[in-house]
Amino acid sequence: MTRPAQTAAHYPWAALWVALLMLMPWTVGCLSFHRGPMPGEPRGSYLQLQGARVRYTDSAEATPGDRQKPAAVLIHGFAASLDTWVEVAPALTSSHRVVTLDLKGFGWSDRPEGDYSPDAQARLVFGLMDHLGIEKATWVAHSWGSSVALSGAISQPDRVQKLALYDAWVYEEQLPVFFQWARASGIGESMFAAFYKERTEDRMLLAFFDKKRVSEELVDAVNAALDRPGTVAAALAAVRGQRFAEMQSRYKSVTQKTLLLWGREDLVTTQSYGERLSRDLPNAKLIMYPRCGHFPMIEAKEASTRDLVEFLKDDAKPEPVSTVQKSAKAEP
Questions:
Q1: Share of the chain residues as helix, strand and coil, in percent rounded to the nearest 5
Q2: DSSP states along 122-160
Q3: Phi-psi region of 140 (alpha: psi -120 to 50; beta: other; left: phi over 0)
Q4: Which residues, listed in sequence order, are joined to residue 330 by a DSSP beta bridge?
Q5: Could you report the per-residue pLDDT of 309-325, keeping only the tens digit for each?
Q6: 77 φ, ψ to 5°?
Q7: Dmax over Cα atoms in the chain, in whole Å?
């Protein structure tokens, strides 16, 4: 019996594999990292920290009295920057010293070759805290940044006072097939070189309940950020660092009081993962926001920020600066 001919339409995944294998000779090794200033870089505070030049903000630079307030460190998600918190940070400064940063590989921070795992990024945050003389802080994080926050809470629990996590990306089961395939040497380089900067608007539409928020101006800004040198290589390194299988088994050991803020219509980190995380973290409270996608700080700005402020209001005052051993030196 003659077997009927099959086309790529019958086996779309196989067709993709063939395309990737054909691309490999031209793409392996072509993703480059980057150190140093980038075109269009904004003025601000930059710090040489653990082999990377890191952009950060500290409310105490403009208001020295903030050093006497409890600290809150705000951590962005994957492919994002400290600008995630532009609407949230001002609401916290009346009660807190507010610190934000661009994690290694994102925003305007360096994109060096190296470790981009949640544990490595958490060490970067602790290094920034050391430099600023902050012994303990509440960590507020979004999406993939929540894995960084949980890693910090696990590794140095005495320095993470509380956690507030927006739409957390922290489970192995959340990783799409694209990310899992990218772990393979050669395949990952081919995939990211070919596809990472494609269809930006479509991917952004998945993140919002109100699709009108995805404006042409916003898409252009995201595309410009993706074009910064070293961005694709750093994104692949960060994806390869997302190995949550062992880490998620330790979530039940996180004893810090935790607030989970979640968009009910989030298609990126679905509601079921918020419910799962609220069960895995012993002291967690989950709040769902209706008609809201992956960014409650935008689509449910008033309600989610009010809940965050309420959660932070009983934070302890900071320890004396003398108790902190500074481990980083600012760039001149």
A1: 45, 15, 40
A2: HHHHHHHHHHHT-S-EEEEEETTHHHHHHHHHHH-GGGE
A3: beta
A4: 47
A5: 999 998 877 765 544 44
A6: -100, -170
A7: 84
Catalogue all structural domains in the chain, each as residue range(s) with its CATH number: 42-175+243-330 (3.40.50.1820)
d(CA 50, CA 288): 37
- Any idea which residue has 């900067």 for tokens? 197
Q: In what order do the strands lie in the sheet with 329-330?
A: 284-289, 258-263, 160-166, 137-142, 71-75, 97-101, 52-58, 45-49, 329-330
Question: For residue 298, what are its two tokens?
Answer: 């935008």
This prediction's pTM: 0.87
Report residue 86 as tokens. Answer: 């532009």
How far is it, in rounded angstroms, from Cα 166 to Cα 78?
13
The residues of the chain scoring below 50 in pLDDT are 1-28, 322-332
Dist. CA 253–CA 301, nearest whole Å: 31
What is the pLDDT at residue 118? 98
> So what's the pLDDT on residue 320?
55
* CA distance to 167, 204, 227, 311, per residue, from 221 (Å): 23, 12, 10, 32
Q: Tens digit of pLDDT for each residue in 222-256?
A: 999 999 999 999 999 999 999 999 999 999 999 99
Closest-CA residue to 164 (of 324, 319, 317, 296): 296
* Assigned token pair, 256: 């810090």
Residues of 137-146 as b/e, b for ≥16 C-beta within 10 angstroms?
bbbbbbbbbb
| β-bridge mates for residue 329, sequence order | 48
Question: 3-state class of 38 per DSSP?
Answer: coil
